[in-house]
Each structure stands twice: as structure tokens, then as C-alpha cells.
Amino acid sequence: MSTAVTQTWYMTQRQLMVFTRQPAYAIITLIQPVIWLFLFGGLFKKVVELGGFGTTTYLTYLVPGVVAMSALSSNMWAGMGTLEEIQRGTLNRFLTTPVSRAALMNGNVVNNGLVTAFQSAVIVLLGLAGGADYPGGVGGVAILVLASVLLGTIFGALSNALGMLVRERESIIGINTFLLLPLTFLSSAFMAPSQMPSWMRHVADFNPLNWAMVAGRSALSEHPDWNAVLGRGGALLVLAVAAVWLSIRAFRSYQRSV
Predict the structure, then answer these.
(1) What is the pLDDT of residues 135-188, one digit of tens each?
(2) Are 144 and 64 in contact (CB under 8 A)?
(3) Rounded distance, CA 188 to CA 205, Å?
(4) Structure pTM?
(5) Interior CA angle at 133 toward 187 and 25, to 5°?
(6) 1 pLDDT higher than 60
(7) Given CA atoms 237, 17, 138, 190 in this order, what sign does their dihedral have?
(8) CA-to-CA distance for 140 and 142, rounded, in angstroms?
(9) What are the b/e assignments for 177-198, b being 16+ CB within 10 Å?
(10) C-alpha of 146 from chain center
């Protein structure tokens, strides 16, 4: 067990080094969340007057949504990195070593989780600087970040599995583009559930992106609904474990094909 953990951390460090050597990439990945926060937040700030948002400022409502959307959009492209390693032959060279096959996949997942946590913390701080209020305090912020990491793990692991199964950039791009907008707008990212059409509200109940938002918003509120936090958080955890298991199975299928 300790060997598998050590090997996973080694693979994680390998990918973290790539991230830290490209500070411009870290800045670029935060541009879109900043646009969501301050352009959308400014454009729709009066929509909070409709009621049902649970807060007096739209930016406070928007921050958990932006954190979750950022986790989703950045992790959906994890499979592109896996595909690049396949095409360069890097992954095949690792197959000739005694490193754990689970570590080869989980290193990517852990790396994405750490990057997602960093991005989420920055977005929370940007929201605070813009006037957002977090009555749930540090504990609420920690739950929001954890929910975003679990959400990112789900889609990062599924993207890795997809990369190993289709092995084509165009397919990954097409599938991600197809899923991103429906997942975003069939959630409470921008609008309170009470203001959504009933059919959209019911669909959102089955959307993992919305689970992260509900858990995060509730944890950050003055009076958290712990049933909602634990229920949505538990569902994200179960789905994350299933997605990681699936990515490992996909990797073993890839290994048999080379």
C-alpha cells in the first residue's frame, strides 16, 4: 500500500513540475472564471431581487457556481494530456517499469485535484475582494473546495478513460464541447432553482455539477443544511471513486492493446 502511495505521489510530482514551470498557463486558466465572476456578476447583479437566491448579493451566490464550473471545465480536458503521452510514447515507456498501473492513472487525478484546489481558493479570494460574503467561514470554504475537487476528479478520471478508449483529439474535443454547456445551464450556476423552469430544476437534481454547487452554497450560508451538504458530497464521493475505478479499467484495457 505504501509503495502504491509513494509511486502515485512520484507521478503527481512529475506532472506538478510541468504546471509550476508554466505560470502563464495558471494565469490563463483563471481568466475565464474572472470573466464569469465580474462580467456575469455585474450584468446580472439585479437578478437577486427576484428572490430565492438566499443572499442579498448576486456575487455571493455566483462564487460557488464559478468554482464548480472552473473545476468542471479544466478537468474535462485531462484526457488530452493522457492522449499526448500516448502519442509521444511516454506512457508506453512507463509500462516497461515496475511502477503501479494505478499510480500511472491516479498521479494524473491527484495532480488535477491539487490544481483544482488552488484554482478554487483563488476564485474564492477574488470573490471576497469583489464584495462576496461567506457566512459559513473557513469551514464552508473548505467544503466548497473539497466539493470542487471531487467534481474535478469525476470528470478528470472519465476524461482519462475517454482518452485511452478513443485516442483521438477530435473525439475528446467534440464530446467535451457537447457536454459543457448543457451541464452548466442545467444547473443552478447562474439562476436560483426557484426561478428555473420545473423540468430544468428536476434535471439539475441529477447533475453532478449542481451537486457541488448545492453543497458549496449550503456550507457557505449562515445556516447550512447539513443534509444537503452530506447528501450531495457523499454522492460526489461515490461517483468519484467509480470514475477512478473506470479510468484504471480503461488503462488496463489500453495496456492489453499495446
Answers:
(1) 999 999 999 999 999 999 999 999 988 888 888 888 888 888 899 889 999 999
(2) yes
(3) 10
(4) 0.90
(5) 65
(6) no
(7) negative
(8) 5
(9) eeebeebbebbbbbbbbeebee
(10) 10
